[in-house]
Design a protein that fits this description.
Helices cover 74% and strands 5% of the residues. By secondary structure, the chain is mainly alpha-helical. The chain has a two-stranded antiparallel ribbon with strand order 1-2. A hairpin with a 2-residue loop joins strand 1 (29-31) and strand 2. The model has no long low-confidence stretch (mean pLDDT 95).
Length: 110
């Protein structure tokens, strides 16, 4: 979606959007027609609005939350890649990995 539609859907003005982009909270794709926003950007924008307006989080707090969200998404991607790699292994290797994970889990509960 274009910048105008994005701002309209979130009910924000140009200044607010510029701050979010300057802070690195949103990184729209730049095309010949201007900035292009994805559905994920819209979800991030809604999260930012919720943090600021509904929860009273200040700018440094929003920065921290958005950084943590990005880290979480990165970890989920890494976990997905690891799961895919394990699934390509032989059943014996898969069983060994599962038993090691069980052992680690039992050890952590102590």
């Amino acid at each position: 979606m274009n910048e105008s539609e994005f701002r309209l859907r979130l009910e924000i003005d140009v200044t607010v959007l510029e701050v979010w982009i300057d802070q690195g909270w949103l990184i729209p794709e730049t095309t010949e027609e201007g900035r292009d926003f994805r559905d994920a950007d819209l979800a991030r924008g809604q999260l930012i609005l919720d943090l600021i307006h509904a929860m009273g989080v200040n700018e440094p707090g929003v920065d921290l939350v958005m950084d943590l969200v990005d880290q979480l998404h990165g970890l989920r991607s890494t976990l997905r890649e690891l799961t895919d790699a394990v699934s390509r292994q032989s059943p014996a290797v898969q069983e060994h990995i599962l038993s090691e994970l069980d052992r680690l889990e039992r050890h952590e509960r102590r």
